[in-house]
Every structure is written in structure tokens, then in C-alpha cells.
Amino acid sequence: MRHTETDTLILGAGAAGMMCAARCTGRVMVIDHAAKPGEKIRISGGGRCNFTNLGVEPARFVSHNPHFAKSALARYTQWDFIDLVDRHGIAWHEKTLGQLFCDGKSTQVVDMLRAEMAHADLRLDTSLTSLAHNGAQFEARLARNGRDERVTARAVVLATGGKSIPKMGATGLAYDLARQFGLRVTDTRPALVPLTFDGQPFAGLSGVATPVTASAGGAAFDEAMLFTHRGLSGPAILQVSTYWREGDGVRIDLDPAGRLAPALRAQRAEAGRVQLSSVLARHLPQRLVQHLAADLGLDRRVADCSDTAIDEVERALRGWTLSPTGSEGYRTAEVTLGGIDTDDLSSKTMEAKTVPGLYAIGEAVDVTGWLGGYNFQWAWSSAVAAAEAI
Ligand code: FDA
């Protein structure tokens, strides 16, 4: 069997693994079972990769230990990544809420990382058969096209990501290896994922989008909500899905700017014969107003509404509480919440506290960012933290 010696073996050529390879000195081998590296980068941000966010701050990351991400995020910031992108001449723009996207294709980011990691030995279509530590170094068995190879390495980096989108090759390998080496793994669940409901109550509204404030589990997000055949999606819902738990309600404020009650009162003063539903349809999508009409009694004249009645309609629209029964799961989730327990890793270096030479970075770790470029920034920052320590 062929034997290769390397200094650092990185498992996973995704965002974190490629960045780590780029910043590691010495001999670096990166393996991935996919045919191409950085496939999630390629499909991210609708093909334009939302590669970071101007508003990166630790509070926008969810973890069992909310302090864990601070050090890595502070040492390799969004400005460092922007600088890298600029040096490679990749044009970008801010979309909304500090989200930075490529002007062109997201493959520019993949190509940039490939160029940065040109010194690394990248092995694609390659699987890990086993990983052990023999007291002095790690020993990995790899398989490619039916041929086995033994690789010895001083350091191993777990960078195989989370469980989201198994169709793209996501596996729980990092969690399995972490457990094998005695690290704990927190409960994992799909996050940044559409929420579903029994009986498809919004099927008739499929395709309708409206700005809302969506709240669940103590977090609130002002963004667009989208009705789908299966339930609710859109950025506001993807964001709250990280905080929502089975059995909880999601509170939707359909009037985040607070314009509806004043509009109804003004209409009553000017021409009260107009139907409540007609006034609301000037501010909310018509199909949504129709959907709510029976429950809220919107088929009546504004003139017939007392102040109390208008207040009740406002309360209902601003505190619409829905009870999702589940989510679309890992099939469509952008990320995995939870992962390798941060209590078992150094926040400075991402090295396992009890296994010198073993590192975990990116989505495999129990650090999950908000929607909007935060998860890539965690991949870049955690990768650099590990690379600088190796
Ligand atoms: P990542 O998943 O990128 O890489 C893991 C690598 O390990 C993959 O190449 C995989 O093939 C490999 N691998 C897995 N199991 C293996 C095994 N058993 N053996 C060998 N190799 C294995 N984030 C963001 O900030 N901005 C955005 O615009 C988006 N958009 C987006 C869209 C969609 C559709 C998804 C699904 C996700 C996003 N994300 C995002 C999230 C972002 O893609 C994610 O957080 C990072 O890619 C995580 O980087 P990692 O390197 O940790 O894992």
C-alpha cells in the first residue's frame, strides 16, 4: 500500500478546509469525497456567494458557548476576507443588511481559494476509511478508485461540515471522528430552514411575499417572509428557524412599520364606506388579505369599525401566532445547528483540548451564524485560527 507523509491532513475541501489549507505552511494534504472542491460555495447566495457580512459580531452566532467564536472572529475579520477578495480582483457589492455578494459568479471565490492553496496536495473523489492516532502521529487510510493509501500526519483538521443537503455529499463524518477521539457533540438540528405545517394551510398563498418581523425563541428578525406550498420560508423565517423549537409558536408582525391602524383611521375619517379589506390590500398582498378576511372580519366597512375594533385588527395583524409542526429538514437547510462541542476545543486555535494535533473548524463545530454571510465568515475565521496554530 502506498504511504505518504504529510504535516497536516485536512478532511474536507469546503469553505473552511480550503481556507485552512491556504493558510497552513509545510506539507498539506486535503481530501474530499466530492469530485470538486467548494461545492457549497458554488451554489451559495443564488450563485453569487454571500461571502461575508459587514456587520459580523459574535452576537450573530449561535452556540452552546456564545463566547467561543469571539477570538477567531476578532483575529480574522470580514475586512481581512474583503482584502483577500480585493487582492484577487473579485468585484463585489453590498446587497442589504451588510451582506456582501460577488458581482459575478461564486466560482470566483472557489477559484481564489484554489489559487491560495496551490501548495497543498488536493485529493478529490477520495474517502477516509479510518483515522487513528499511534501515539506520535495520526494515521489515515484513504481510498480512491478502489486503491488504498496510508497517510501519516502530525495534525488532522476536521472540516467536513455539517449534515445539511445530504444530496450534495454532506455527512456526519466530523461528528463521528470527534466522538471517536472522545470529543462531545451537541445535539444537531437543521437551521436556516423553511418551516412546515400540517395540512398545508398556506398552499393557496404560495409565492406571496411580504415584509414582517418574525419572532421565536427570544429572537426577532425584520425581513421578508414567503408563503410556500409546504409552509413558510423567506429570510425572516429562515432566521427564526434557528431559534424555533417543536411546540413553540412563531409570532409574525405583518405590519412592522405600524402603518395599518393609522391608515384605517384616516380612511374612516375621509370615506368610511370603503371595506376594511380594501384598505389593508393597499399595504399587504391582496391574496394574504383574502386569506385573513374571514378570521379578522375584514369584509365590513371602515365606518362600522370602532377604535376598539381597529385596535383588535391591528393586534391580530401584528401578533399573528402560527404553530409550525416541523421544518423541511436537512434536505434544504442551509446549515446545521450544533456540532462538535466548543467546550472540548480551544477557542484560540480550534485544537481539541484532549487530543493534541486534532483540530475542528467550520460548520462541523457548534457555531452557527445568522443568514447573510455569517456562516462563511465563521468558516474563514475558524480556518485561519487553526492554520496559524498548526
Ligand atoms: P462545507 O460543507 O463547505 O464543506 C465540507 C466539505 O467536506 C465538502 O466539500 C464535502 O464534500 C466534504 N465532505 C463531507 N463529508 C465527507 C466525507 N465523509 N468524506 C470526505 N469529504 C467529505 N453561508 C454564507 O455565509 N453565505 C451564503 O450565501 C450561503 N449560502 C448557502 C446556500 C446553500 C444552499 C447552503 C446549503 C448553504 C449556504 N451557506 C451560506 C452555508 C455555507 O455554505 C456553510 O456554512 C459553509 O459551506 C460551511 O463550510 P465548511 O467548510 O465547514 O463545510
Automatic annotation (TrEMBL):
<feature type="domain" description="RsdA/BaiN/AoA(So)-like Rossmann fold-like">
    <location>
        <begin position="7"/>
        <end position="388"/>
    </location>
</feature>
<feature type="domain" description="RsdA/BaiN/AoA(So)-like insert">
    <location>
        <begin position="189"/>
        <end position="335"/>
    </location>
</feature>
<dbReference type="InterPro" id="IPR023166">
    <property type="entry name" value="BaiN-like_dom_sf"/>
</dbReference>
<dbReference type="InterPro" id="IPR055178">
    <property type="entry name" value="RsdA/BaiN/AoA(So)-like_dom"/>
</dbReference>
<dbReference type="InterPro" id="IPR057661">
    <property type="entry name" value="RsdA/BaiN/AoA(So)_Rossmann"/>
</dbReference>
<dbReference type="InterPro" id="IPR004792">
    <property type="entry name" value="BaiN-like"/>
</dbReference>
<keyword id="KW-0285">Flavoprotein</keyword>
<dbReference type="Pfam" id="PF22780">
    <property type="entry name" value="HI0933_like_1st"/>
</dbReference>
<keyword id="KW-0274">FAD</keyword>
<dbReference type="InterPro" id="IPR036188">
    <property type="entry name" value="FAD/NAD-bd_sf"/>
</dbReference>
<protein>
    <submittedName>
        <fullName>Membrane protein</fullName>
    </submittedName>
</protein>
<dbReference type="Pfam" id="PF03486">
    <property type="entry name" value="HI0933_like"/>
</dbReference>
